[in-house]
Amino acid sequence: METAGYTTLTRQSGLMKEMQVVAHNLANAATSGYRREGIVFTEHVAKLEGEGSVSMASAAARLVDLHQAGLSQTGGTFDLGIQGEGFFMVQTPEGERLTRAGTFMPSAEGTLVTPDGYPLLDAGGAPVVAPSDTASVRISTDGTMSASGGVVAEIGLWRPVDPTSLRHQSGVLFSATEVEPIEQGTIRQGFVEDSNVDPMTEVARMIEVQRAYEMGQKFLESEDQRQKGVIQTLGR
Fold first, then answer.
1. Quick one: pLDDT at residue 171?
2. According to DSSP H, which parts of 67-198 are helical?
């Protein structure tokens, strides 16, 4: 295969990865706390001996969209939506993870956990324990949890020191190389944040990527036919 074919193949590989990301975004358009992802394309230029240079495309990096999504009111005592920047931190078997999905519930031991059973962590990194009388629980916008007139916990908000280090792990969980606590975020009790995926935009992008992939495929097929014709001509 000639250089043009290899260059096109790297482009096709990147477009296939982008199609997978777009499909994943669409599948989670209704998932509370989901963050849209995008592909970052990079170009690698290498000099060829006696033939100038060749450009290869790579789409190995993903970018997490941190734009605010809408908040839906649920009225749940432990449904928490974030207005502004920041993430909740939960403890998983693989380590601490960040999430914007604020649906929590008390476990049998009273610890607030996600639907998957991961404990919510407070501002100091310890599990948040809900009081037995959940009817009197109030959570203020700064994360202070109180019950019967007394403070029982301080729910923390965190952010990655380097936003580009944010990596989607599974579901609505993210990891980062380094995180820090923040105070600017606002917690809304009785709300959950929606997904920040715009289905119409993703569908339009899917069509665009599909057309670009089809154009590349047609080029490869044309190049294959050209090379076969050259071989047949020289073989006569």
1. 85
2. none
